[in-house]
Amino acid sequence: MTIHESCFDRLAAAYPNQQEHRTAWLQSWADLENGVVSRTVDWFLKNWARCPTLAEFKAETSKERDRMKIASRREQTDACSYCVSGWVVTDWEKWFAHPCEACRPEQHDRWLTGKYLPT
């Protein structure tokens, strides 16, 4: 049994009327990473009373992928020994800082070229 099949079984256990749509769901998940499918199923089981449609599920997988990227970046930033939470502080009194080159390379490159807009 694949991870996708296991995830569908968890979804079908909570929403039994979906069992007949197994093939369609599994085919729609073919291009998705295992972790994204698993975490999205968990999210729906925790937050929804009814079974999502395929379109609702796919929309949530996009949001889940974004949440996973943010969490991964946060872990990378937290582990960096060159900065404080992704920032290299150049003046502690005035709190001048710039994005860290080691853990936030995209932001650092934009900062160097003058295109960085803090959020």
Explain the overall architecture.
- By secondary structure, this protein is mainly alpha-helical.
- It has two domains: 3-77; 80-112, no CATH class.
- The protein has five helices and two strands; from the N terminus they run H-H-H-H-E-E-H.
- A two-stranded antiparallel ribbon has the order 1-2.
- Strand 1 and strand 2 form a beta hairpin.
- Helix 3 crosses helix 4.
- The longest helix is centred in the middle third of the chain and has 26 residues, at 54-79.
- The radius of gyration is 20 Å and the shape is elongated.
- The termini are far apart.
SSE arrangement:
Layout: H1 3-14, H2 22-28, H3 34-47, H4 54-79, E1 87-91, E2 96-99, H5 105-112
Antiparallel strand pairs: 1-2
How many distinct helices?
5
* Range of helix content: 55-70%
Give the distance, in angstroms, between the N- and C-terminal Cα atoms: 44 Å
Mean pLDDT: 90
How are helices and strands ordered from N to C? HHHHEEH
How many discrete structural domains? 2
Residues in β-strands, percent:
5-15%
Q: Any low-confidence stretches, pLDDT <50, length ≥5?
A: none
| General shape | elongated
Structural class: mainly alpha
